UniProtKB/TrEMBL annotation:
It holds the Pfam family Glycos_transf_4. Its EC number is 2.7.8.13. It comes from Paeniglutamicibacter cryotolerans. It catalyses: UDP-N-acetyl-alpha-D-muramoyl-L-alanyl-gamma-D-glutamyl-meso-2,6-diaminopimeloyl-D-alanyl-D-alanine + di-trans,octa-cis-undecaprenyl phosphate = di-trans,octa-cis-undecaprenyl diphospho-N-acetyl-alpha-D-muramoyl-L-alanyl-D-glutamyl-meso-2,6-diaminopimeloyl-D-alanyl-D-alanine + UMP. It is found in: Cell membrane; Membrane. NCBIfam families: mraY. This is Phospho-N-acetylmuramoyl-pentapeptide-transferase. The lineage of its organism: Bacteria, Bacillati, Actinomycetota, Actinomycetes, Micrococcales. It comes from the Bacteria. One of its GO terms (biological process) is regulation of cell shape. The chain crosses the membrane at residues 6-27, 48-68, 80-102, 160-182, 194-217, 237-257, 264-283, 289-312, 340-360. It is a multi-pass membrane protein. Its cofactor is Mg(2+).
Length: 367
């Protein structure tokens, strides 16, 4: 528990103190946000605001993770140390952040609202996602437990296992499944990141939930003395909890500068990295379907875009919302941006609370 507090505190300080320094560098280089022409007119004032803030988040999380483990090694050499699951989360987190960085940098360099071409983005994200998925099925521990499994999970692995179709087909289907989750979460966070602090605050709550889930899975791990009938076979659950705390801390420090009026935006660097980390937590903690509830705000906003685009094509030009994603619909209805953000944070908190309630209730009922 001390490690979680230390890691979160370290990450918070790194972003809280590092972000203003990074803002000065971006301003000096004139790396500012290019606002979309088809967005709300009230966003025109945001043009030129420093972006690519996700760089600070990624660096702070990676540094805090390794520094925390380094300190733990000095205090107690018997400490479990860096784990395969922890490194896999960082791989997907930093890998997606790199894709986002390339996208952001092209936007800034060419002074346009579009960065990487769609096919380039898909190829790069697929390369990172496939690498993550394949490695997640390897690196068994002493009990033979790998970071991920080919089974579809809800609150734990279910009986629906891709390996039913054979080992090779099982791996292929799992890779496709994992990449669907990664694509959904990265796009969900990216679409949510349209108002000052909205995606940052919502992500803090999701990572906080995965911190609690990791702690609970550690305390109720299968094989512990006095274990009940309900237990969890999750590899490196405490290290996942540590990373959840570190990510929450880093985002809290960043939110200080990202809250309205934002001094910096996270850009695709941050939104894709955060989406990748959320996907990694869902897969490695064996809570893939539960993610739909925990990240309900991101799901809701993504669905608003799907509904808007689908209805627009079917109806021949009509719209369900004044603008999609959903947060812009309420802006155009006259809600102040801060009101939209706070009310959506409340919704995000309710989704997280519901997800944690489902997770805990299953354990209680199963006793």
């Amino acid at each position: 528990m001390i490690a979680l507090i230390a890691g979160a505190g370290m990450a918070l300080l790194l972003t809280l103190l590092g972000t203003p320094l990074y803002i000065k560098v971006l301003i000096r280089r004139k790396y500012g946000q290019v606002v979309r022409d088809d967005g709300p007119t009230t966003h025109a004032v945001k043009s030129g605001t420093p972006t690519m803030g996700g760089v600070v988040i990624v660096l702070a999380v990676v540094a805090a993770y390794f520094l925390t483990h380094g300190i733990l090694e000095l205090i107690d050499a018997r400490n479990a140390g860096i784990t395969a699951s922890g490194l896999l989360v960082l791989l997907l987190f930093a890998g997606m952040g790199l894709v986002g960085f390339l996208d952001d940098f092209i936007k800034i360099a060419k002074k346009r609202s579009l960065g990487l071409r769609a096919w380039q983005k898909i190829v790069l994200q697929a390369a990172v996602g496939i690498s993550f998925a394949l490695m997640a099925l390897n690196f068994p521990d002493e009990q033979g437990l790998t970071p991920a499994s080919t089974a579809i999970s809800f609150l734990r692995d279910t009986s629906l296992d891709f390996a039913f179709f054979g080992p090779v087909a099982g791996v292929i289907l799992f890779v496709i499944w994992a990449n669907l989750i990664v694509t959904a979460t990265t796009n969900g966070v990216n679409l949510t990141d349209g108002l000052d602090g909205l995606a940052t605050g919502a992500a803090i709550m999701v990572f906080g939930a995965y911190t609690l889930i990791g702690i609970w899975q550690t305390n109720q791990a299968c094989g512990l003395p006095g274990q009940t009938n309900v237990c969890y076979t999750v590899r490196d659950s405490m290290d996942l909890a540590l990373l959840g705390a570190i990510l929450s801390g880093a985002l809290i420090g960043f939110l200080w500068w990202n809250a309205a009026p934002a001094k910096i935006f996270m850009g695709d660097t941050g939104s894709l990295a955060i989406g990748g980390a959320i996907a990694a937590f869902a897969i490695l903690s064996r809570t893939e379907i539960l993610l739909v509830v925990l990240a309900g705000l991101f799901v809701m906003i993504t669905l608003s875009v799907i509904i808007q685009v689908g209805y627009f094509k079917i109806s021949g030009g009509k719209r369900v919302f004044r603008m999609a994603p959903l947060q812009h619909h309420f802006e155009l209805k006259g809600w102040p941006e801060v009101n939209v953000v706070i009310r959506f944070w409340i919704l995000g908190g309710l989704f997280v609370a519901a997800g944690l309630g489902i997770f805990y209730s299953e354990w209680v009922v199963g006793l």
